[in-house]
Amino acid sequence: MKKKVSKAIFPVAGLGTRFLPATKSIPKEILTLVDRPLIQYAIDEAREAGIKEFIFVTAKGKNALEDYFDAAPELEKALRKKKKTDLLRELKATDMDSGAIAYIRQREALGLGHAVWCARRLIGNEPFAVILPDDVIASEKPCLQQMAEQYAETGGNIVAAMEVRQDETSLYGILNPKEDFQQFVTVKDMAEKPDPATAPSNLAVIGRYILEPQIMQNLNKMKKGSGGEIQLTDAIAQEARNGGQVYGYRFKGKRYDCGSKSGYLRATLAFGLMRDDLKDDLMEYLTEIMGVRQAAE
Ligand code: UTP
């Protein structure tokens, strides 16, 4: 029987330079979509996939992220006194069990692969998930849950994959597929941010992974890759080249790249339009500004 995946790593130690100056003092993962920080969407997705242990790889300047998960007894007391039961319920839904979260420090931002490797002692000899909170995925069934179901059937290393335009391959890790089974492909190799002319496919890896402990062993070797960083893609590609099981899973859902400004703004709109309390007002405003734009053209 396949082991269940109960641990997830959230690498949140990056510098978030694309959101400067905001990220001088606010971790990128605390930026909100409507009224929930990005990290809350990631935690909810992990919980729904059965994750019980949440490992954050953090860095200097990320205290707001740790504070976010603290209990808020004064706030709760004030809401109770004012009989704001709806808000109280929303707040309670963000509670985490004592001991469910661990924080590990990445001393230097040496890359995503290095950040994941920093959690190796807490992972031990178990499969683990990796979630990048700046990739937010809107879907009926949470993306990681879809992948956990795939893992229960096939095991191996599973990366979330999506088709991108040929001219976008240089923004992603790209899969070199062996066989295509529609829902997933088997992978023989991967390339980090390849030029469109040399990209092995247009199947890109996004920020959800279920990985076997062997990946930590591969990361032990610590070779620098694209951009001088230690890349998670390289450690998974090595596994594929060594004949290990690597799958690219075509998840169902819409992914928003909240690590980029335009992706974040699109997500803000999309998540606002999904909310009953906001959609009418937002639609009215969008119609109004589109009208102004068309009149100007
Ligand atoms: P990004 O490539 O988005 O980098 O990292 P970044 O630093 O967060 O943002 P920019 O590009 O400067 O704007 C992808 C994920 O990997 C984590 C980030 O926190 C993010 O979740 N990461 C990256 C680390 O934890 N450590 C690193 O050394 C690099």
Instruction: Give a count of the beta strands, DSSP E runs of length 2 or more.
Output: 13
List the strand order in the largest sheet.
8-11-9-10-12
Secondary-structure-based class equals alpha/beta
| Unreliable stretches covering 5 or more consecutive residues | none
Order of helices and strands: EEEHEHHHEHHEEHEEEEHHEEHH
CATH topology: Spore Coat Polysaccharide Biosynthesis Protein SpsA, Chain A
How far apart the termini lie comes to 63 Å
Mean residue pLDDT:
92
At CATH level 2, the architecture is Alpha-Beta Complex
CATH class: Alpha Beta
The share of residues in helices is 25-40%
Count of discrete domains: 1
Total number of helices: 11
CATH superfamily: Spore Coat Polysaccharide Biosynthesis Protein SpsA, Chain A
Biggest sheet statistics: 5 strands, mixed, barrel
What form results from the Cα inertia axes?
A: globular
- In what range is the share of β-strand residues? 15-25%
What bound compounds does this protein have? Answer: uridine 5'-triphosphate
Radius of gyration: 20 Å
Short structural summary:
By secondary structure, the protein is of the alpha/beta class. The protein has helices spanning 38-48, 63-68, 73-81, 85-92, 112-117, 120-123, 143-154, 214-220, 232-241, 261-273, 279-296; strands at residues 7-11, 32-33, 36-37, 53-58, 101-105, 128-131, 135-138, 157-163, 173-180, 184-192, 203-211, 246-250, 254-257.
Can you describe this structure?
The protein is α/β, with parallel strands linked by helices and 297 residues long. It has one domain: Spore Coat Polysaccharide Biosynthesis Protein SpsA, Chain A. The protein contains eleven helices and 13 strands. It has helices at 38-48, 63-68, 73-81, 85-92, 112-117, 120-123, 143-154, 214-220, 232-241, 261-273, 279-296; strands at residues 7-11, 32-33, 36-37, 53-58, 101-105, 128-131, 135-138, 157-163, 173-180, 184-192, 203-211, 246-250, 254-257. The protein has a five-stranded mixed beta barrel. The chain has a two-stranded antiparallel ribbon with strand order 2-3. A hairpin with a 2-residue loop joins β2 (32-33) and β3 (36-37). α8 (214-220) crosses α9. The radius of gyration is 20 Å and the shape is globular. It starts with 6 loop residues before the first strand and ends with a helix.
